[in-house]
Amino acid sequence: MAPALKKSSIKCVLVGDGAVGKTCLFAVYAKGEFPKGYIPTVMDNYSVTVFVKQKEPVILEVWDTAGQEDFAAIRELSYPGTDVFVVCYSVSSMSSFRNVWDFWIKEIQNMNAPFVVCGTKEDLFQEGNPQHVSEEQATDYAKKFKAWASVRCSAIQALRVNVLFNYVLKCGLGQPSPLFKKKGGSGCVLF
């Protein structure tokens, strides 16, 4: 296996419908706390320094975008130079999941950057609820549309938020996709 690309920074852009929890994901990852109240984002960006394998510093620059249609022109200003997109939906909202495939993937496809699909609000998931998205549905669609990875998180419970951003780092550093592993080895480098 070839060594990962050496990069000093990774640009990640979070996209998805409004109120699916994009801002909360990064707040929990970067600050370790869930934000109080809901304030719709127009566009914001943050950066954190992450030490890969405890020695190599990588700046993870995260752009948090507005999901509302009114902000499409502003949102698209953040796309150039993106290394990894995170396309978010709420696991408790089938309509936000459909929008991943019907809208968000189409909007970012010309950027030629890989993407991770993220189901947010995992704490609200109810098995058997037809308005909720199963993990199997999400994984099947992620494979069909050639996502780099698919993960489900809960920002309020801090559940798998670190897994999401580890995927972002691995993807941005050129690691192989966990959805399309070759048989006989994991192909992953753990952070």
Show the helix and strand layout.
Layout: E1 9-16, H1 22-31, E2 43-52, E3 56-65, H2 72-76, E4 84-90, H3 94-108, E5 115-120, H4 135-144, E6 149-152, H5 161-172
Parallel strand pairs: 1-3, 1-4, 4-5, 5-6
Antiparallel strand pairs: 2-3
Task: Record the strand order, biggest sheet.
Answer: 2-3-1-4-5-6
Mean pLDDT: 87
Second CATH tier, the architecture: 3-Layer(aba) Sandwich
CATH topology: the name is: Rossmann fold
Task: Work out the helix count.
Answer: 5
Strand elements, count: 6
Order of helices and strands: EHEEHEHEHEH
List the uncertain runs.
Answer: 184-191
Radius of gyration (Å): 16 Å
User: What CATH first level would be assigned?
Assistant: Alpha Beta
Helix content: 25-40%
The biggest beta sheet is recorded as: 6 strands, mixed
Supply the number of structural domains: 1
| Strand-pairing-aware structural class | alpha/beta
CATH homologous superfamily caption: P-loop containing nucleotide triphosphate hydrolases
Shape: globular
- Which percent range describes the beta-strand content? 15-25%
N-to-C CA distance: 17 Å
GO molecular function: GTP binding; GTPase activity
Keywords: GTP-binding, Nucleotide-binding
GO biological process, one term: small GTPase-mediated signal transduction
Pfam families: Ras
Describe the protein.
By secondary structure, the chain is an alpha/beta fold. It has one domain (9-175): P-loop containing nucleotide triphosphate hydrolases (Rossmann fold, 3-Layer(aba) Sandwich). 27% of the residues lie in helices and 24% in strands. The chain has 5 helices and 6 strands; from the N terminus they run E-H-E-E-H-E-H-E-H-E-H. It has a 6-stranded mixed sheet with strand order 2-3-1-4-5-6, with helices on both faces. The protein is globular, with a radius of gyration of 16 Å. Residues 184-191 have low confidence and may be disordered.
